Amino acid sequence: MKYKIGEYSKMLGVTADTLRHYEKLGIIKPLKEDNSSYRLFGDLDCRNILRSRWFRSFDIPLNETIELTNEGSLEKVAEVFTKTSKDLALEIERLNGLLEKSNETLDICEKLHRNLHKCELDDFEGMYRICQTKENVLIKDSKTAKTVKQWMNLLPFTFFSFSLTGYKPTTHDHFDFDFGLAISIPDIHKLKIKLPSNIQCIQASKAVYMYVKLLEGEFISNATLDSMHDFASSKGYTFNGNVYGRILFSEKNENALYNYNEIIMPVNLTNDI
Questions:
Q1: Where are the alpha helices (H) located in the chain, listed in sequence order?
Q2: How far apart are alpha carbons 40 and 33 in whole angstroms?
């Protein structure tokens, strides 16, 4: 049986414009009615439309969809779906990675509500980081810029980190700081990333963690670090030299801007020193 375009589009759940587009692509070939400009669609057109839409539902490229619909062989179908299965597996792996990072972010939000300005002893998985600044001044270096560009494409697996050097417990001595992109050691292995030579490696260890909320322009104080050092000592651990951290989120509250940071103080068991 033959149908005009309006009736046929309603039967198939597509628009008349879609049918005209499929006709231009050669997926369907309606007959021209004698002595009129009407196009008549039949059962074969229906099968081709449904088959092509089925192929497209796998995100198979349009040119391959047309070929599979009009001239496809069993070998060609197997070839296309072999590639499609590989592409889907990679996409699932990518989405699972994003889901994992999203869940980690939710965990951090919960910790910010529960443990803000409180010390906690936990495992530190280690990280690789780039030093992009000295204090707050960007370092102009072509090799660093190249690595930064590569690591920016790895977001959200990379994150903005800081390093504090020169901190001495129970003193008010000035300590240096720098900022830069970082990525955890497990994520480096998971993503199979080749490491450049101009990066810093911080090995996995135990660490004292503290989440802090700081007013914009305010920086981590000696008193905060001293409290983390004292906590480590009370648990039988010794501060091993440097302090690191992650810059997390910002929050505007009562016309003031605050920043949430995660401070990481790697420690060793006292008996291991």
A1: 5-12, 16-25, 43-56, 62-71, 74-114, 142-152, 185-191, 222-234
A2: 7
251 SS3 class? strand
Listing DSSP states for 172-237 in one string gives ----EEEEEEEEEHHHHHHHTPPPPSS-EEE--EEEEEEEEEEETT----HHHHHHHHHHHHHTTE
The whole-model pTM stands at 0.77
> For the segment 47-61, what is each residue's pLDDT rounded down to a tens digit?
888 888 899 899 999
At residue 241, the pLDDT reads 84
* Topology of the domain comprising 5-72: Multidrug-efflux Transporter Regulator; Chain: A; Domain 2 (1.10.1660)
Residue length of the chain: 273
Q: Assign domain 115-272 one CATH number from 3.30.1330.60, 3.40.50.10190, 3.30.1540.10, 3.20.80.10.
A: 3.20.80.10
What backbone phi and psi angles, to 5 degrees, belong to 202? -110, 115
Q: Which of 234, 248, 243 is nearest to 124 (CA)?
A: 243
